[in-house]
Amino acid sequence: VQLVESGGGSVQNGGSLTLSCVASGFSYSTDCMGWIRQAPGKEREGVARMSPGGSWTYYADSVKGRFIISRDNYKQMAYLSMNSLKPEDTGVYYCAAGDWEGGSCAAAFLWGQGTQVTVS
Q1: For residues 21 and 23, what is the distance between their CA atoms, to the nearest angstrom?
Q2: Which of 25-29, 40-44, 56-60, 94-98 has the lowest mean pLDDT?
Q3: Non-local CB neighbours of 32 within 8 Å, separated by 6+ positions
Q4: What is the mean pLDDT of residues 85-101?
Q5: How much is the average pLDDT of 90-97?
Q6: Backbone angles phi, psi at 19, to 5 degrees
Q7: Averaged pLDDT of the chain
């Protein structure tokens, strides 16, 4: 049972990156998927979440209009497309899976190892 992120790296202010997350070992297509980031010296922040079927999404105000979460249930993949990146987007980005309950995402039960994103 695991999530493995990839796609992080260093990019200039205003640039773009797409993060990928591959899931294995659990019922991916019935779970909520999300991305959480941890910036140095800051609280962990939930960036984006998506319902199992992809019809519901949530974005933090800090990334709304710039980031897009998507998923491919057949491939058991989740993605975070990040555009117009800013230095304050720097941090470790984690992919996470959570139960879909009552029309929203419950707390994550599984996290990936994280991938570093640096914007300068």
Answers
A1: 7
A2: 25-29
A3: 49, 50, 51, 52, 97, 98, 99, 100, 104, 105, 106
A4: 96
A5: 97
A6: -95, 145
A7: 95
Q: How far is CA 37 from the centre of its chain?
A: 8
Torsion of CA 39, 109, 9, 11, to 10 degrees: -60
Contacts of 6 (CB under 8 A, 6+ apart): 19, 20, 21, 22, 115
Residue 27 has pLDDT above 90, yes or no: no
Rg, C-alpha atoms of the chain: 13
Our measurement of the distance from residue 6's CA atom to the centroid of its chain's CA atoms, rounded to an integer in Å, reads 11
Dig out the tokens for 21 from the structure: 């997350």
Residues 6+ apart with CB under 8 A from 96: 3, 33, 34, 35, 36, 108, 110, 111, 112
- Residues contacting residue 64 through CB under 8 Å, at least 6 positions apart: none
Residue tagged 């922040």 (tokens) = 45
Q: What is the spatial distance between Cα 74 and Cα 63, in angstroms, rounded to a whole number?
A: 27
Residues 6+ apart with CB under 8 A from 53: 73
Report the distance separating Cα 81 and Cα 68, nearest Å: 5
